Each structure stands twice: as C-alpha cells, then as structure tokens.
Amino acid sequence: VMHFPIFLVRFIALFCMGSLSSVYRRARSTKVDLFRDFNGALTRMMVVSSAYRHIIGAARDVPATDLPGLTYGMMFEQMHDVFAESIQSGVLQADDLRVMTTTIFRHLDKDGTGAIGCSEFIRAFISHDAIKVEDVAHFFSKDARRKVSSVL
User: Fold this and answer.
1) Which residues does 21 contact at the CB level (< 8 Å), separation at least 6?
2) pLDDT digits over 127-150, tens only?
3) What pTM value is reported for the model?
4) Nearest to 114 by CA among 71, 73, 57
5) How many Cβ atoms from other residues are within 10 Å of residue 140's Cβ?
6) What is the mean pLDDT of the chain?
C-alpha cells in the first residue's frame, strides 16, 4: 500500500481540486471563538427550526417532536427553487437536480424512515458548527450547573 506524505495530501486538497479546494481553504482558515460560536449556533438552531416548519407547512404551536417529516417531494420542490437560475441558464438539468436531491435526501434521512425529521434537519444545518444541540443541552442541564457551582 502506497502512503502519501500528509503535506502532499494537504497541498492537493487545498490547491489542486478546483472549486472543492476553495471550500477546503475556507474551512482551514476558520477561527474558533467559543462565545461567538455558541451564540451563533443557538441562533442558527432557532432559524432552521422555523425554516423547517415553514417548508413542511406546520403551525408554530405544534411541538417539534410531533412535526411531520420532510418528504422527498417537498425537498425536490425546495431544491428546484434554490437552483432555479442554474436550471433556467442550462447549468443544471432536471435529471441533475433529481440525482442531487436523491443523494442529499438519503444522506439526511439518518433513521431511514423515508422522511427527514426536524432534529435531522437541524443537525444537518449545524453540522459544521463546533457546538451541537447536545452540547447546549448538557451545558445548561441542572447537573452541569451543579458541577460548575461546586467548583466555584
């Protein structure tokens, strides 16, 4: 088995993979600021929860655990709206959009139910955040507060 030196792999990822390299370069230069990231993650969680409700057409008073799942058809409609200009200009074809939607839908449907639940949608939206839903829940739990106050 041939092993590539890490610097060579890094160079290829950062400079030789076209548009994907620009994504790697941005990710590499991201600075971590816990206070900013914590507030930003919480805000994004609220925004994506509201967006999910809007996409599936659910009322605000329905608890998140009782919301219906996002179906493939709903996701395809949303993807069609997102990429409308690319479709109109001929960059993407309808078949390309179906392949894209199918691929992303399968990836997001973590539990394999055939629908993307609200928690799956939120986790996908914040997948690149340093702070996750579970981190926030644990940080503000009674047990965590007790531990912090006992140290102080």
Assistant:
1) 13, 14, 15
2) 877 777 888 787 777 776 565 555
3) 0.67
4) 71
5) 9
6) 85
Tokens of 39: 């507030």
The tokens for 133 are: 């839903």
Nearest in space to 75 (alpha carbons), one of 9, 120, 34? 120
For position 10, what pLDDT does the model report? Answer: 82
121-126 LR contacts (CB < 8 Å, sep 24+): 121/48, 121/52, 121/70, 122/45, 122/48, 122/49, 122/52, 125/44, 125/45, 125/48, 126/41, 126/44, 126/45, 126/48
Burial of 49 (0-12, 13-18, 19+ CB in 10 A): middle
Encoding tokens for residue 127?
A: 């997948």
Residue 116 β-bridge partners: 70
pLDDT in tens, 105-121: 999 999 999 999 999 99
**How would you classify residue 90: left for phi > 0, otherwise alpha for psi between -120 and 50, otherwise beta?**
left
pLDDT digits (tens, 9 = 90+) for 11-26: 888 888 877 777 777 7
